[in-house]
Amino acid sequence: MFIPANLLGILSAITSALVWGSGDFTGGFASRRSHSLQVLVLSALSGIGVLVLGAILWQEGLPSLRSALWAVSAGVVGTMGVAALYRGLGQQNAASIAPVSAVIGAGLPVGYGMLTEGTPDALRLAGFGLALLGIWLVSQAENGGFKINRSGLGLAVVAGLGFGGFFILIAQVEHGLVFTPLIVSRTFTFLTSLLLLRLSSLKLPSVRGNPLALLAGVLDAGGNIFFLAARQLTRLDVAVVLSSLYPAVTVLLAFFLQKQKISISQWLGVGVCVAAIVMITA
Fold first, then answer.
1. How far apart are CA 251 and CA 42, in angstroms?
2. Most buried of the four, 73, 165, 217, 275, by CB within 10 Å?
3. Which pLDDT belongs to residue 275?
4. With contact defined as beta carbons under 8 Å apart, do 168 and 112 qualify?
């Protein structure tokens, strides 16, 4: 049975959202046992292991110097985005940083994709708008309030630029390669997280000390694999927007597995995300 490349790309992007959302949910648990930067170090380490295994099994070749440089840039920018998000979420009333960073992280590549690949049809464009609205709603704090100071807003913007920058930069690697460019990117994520750990005067975490952090890294790497595969099979904006719906997955897992209370706006956001998927994939 022949499946069009575009459809495979859409399915890969949706799978990326499912895996990334599961990774965020697991990472949240891991952060209860260790500092967020220690979790970042462990997750980056386990992610490298998964990617190396994948490259060996698929016998994937090394990336060109150009692709390697794009991957390095993506790793550094993405890590700085995560660091900014973690710092912002640690501030009082800064939970509203999540929707700001999520929308910027998805919106920036959409704008870039339109400039480089042309504007999509009206239905898909409307789906993009719905998706950004859904991401905003589902990322809201439980009380649905929005309180953010100037410092928190700055960190949210930096985080969003970091996430959006990662999407754009990693998408520049040569087609046909998935695992090896991500190994390069994840290695620099690991090195950058070690530097941030040192600057924060935190201890190097034990590999056995937080298994959930290792699992979060495996899931995050899996999400990266499916995203990069999606990017090589469909438009960048489609791959980014569908992959960026992962907050809805995290919220649903928290509801079903932890019995956490979900606000009306978050439920509305989940519904809007589903409607966006239908419009984008129609």
1. 23
2. 217
3. 95
4. yes
Q: Is the pLDDT of residue 98 over 90?
A: no
If DSSP codes are grouped into helix, strand and coil, which group holds residue 234? Answer: coil
Instruction: Look up the pTM and report it.
Output: 0.91
* 36-40, 103-107, 143-147: least confident range: 143-147
Which residue reads 């929707």 in tokens? 99
Distance set, CA 272 to CA 29, 63, 74, 145 (Å): 27, 39, 30, 19
- The winner for highest mean pLDDT among 75-79, 139-143, 276-280 is 276-280
The Cα 142–Cα 172 span in angstroms is 37
First to last CA, the chain: 20
Q: Quote the distance between the C-alpha of residue 215 and its chain's center.
A: 15
Query: CA 18 to CA 5: how far, in whole Å?
Result: 20
Alpha-carbon Rg of the chain, whole angstroms? Answer: 18
Are residues 233 and 5 in contact, defined by beta-carbon separation less than 8 angstroms?
yes
